[in-house]
Amino acid sequence: MTVRDPADAIGWLNRCNSGTDGESPDGKAARTWPGPLGQDGRVTRVFASPEPDREAGGAVFTGIVTELGKTTELNRLAESATLTIHAPAVATATAPGSSVAVNGVCLTITETEGSQFTADVMGETLARSTLGGLAPGAPVNLEQAASVGGRLDGHIVQGHVDGTGVITESRPADRWHVLRIAIPAGLSRYVAEKGSVAVDGVSLTVSSVSAPGVGDVEHWFEVSLIPETLARTTLGGVAVGDRVNIEVDVIAKYVERLLAGGERR
Which domain holds residue 46? Predict the structure, then answer.
């Protein structure tokens, strides 16, 4: 695992600034990128989308933690919440409208003040992730959106949590630590040995999986954590019984969809 300096990231890759055909994939208007070419054929200007994509939360992440933040406040509203995080590096490198992954959940920053930032958390997110259980002082994994042209040190992470898992075993080894995580049956088919999975926003390689089964069969996978991951992320402090956010590899979901068939054009 690599911990990246947020100051190194320039040009965040959001759906509203996709750098493809000048239109964001969700249909919102965006200016053309790249800009006009000079006589030598080089780009003379680069245009960004005029407004951040506040609704879609369409940033792309890599599962490489930028900073270990600390929960300041979770203010529960009728069907949503606002979450304030103490994170000096992220807060000073972002602005309202920026995307950030908090324990693997993509959120849009609504306010920055000093060493803190605040983001809205919708009801769907509270129901599907562990963010609703954050208490003041709780540590959180943070990652800013991937930068255009940056390294992909982890794997493609959308920040769209598929569900939660439960730590069922925690085993120390020689120079690493093994976690076994129970997951819903509906997610197990997307997890493969030596494949990628995001746990609380951390890109990890699956070291073992349960045998395929149906009914009451327990579905689980294991990951092996190196000392760097244990020290730099929240996974170094989890215990048996703790819930964690799970995002499976999006490529597996697309492959399944394609294999299921559909209208051909």
Answer: 6-144
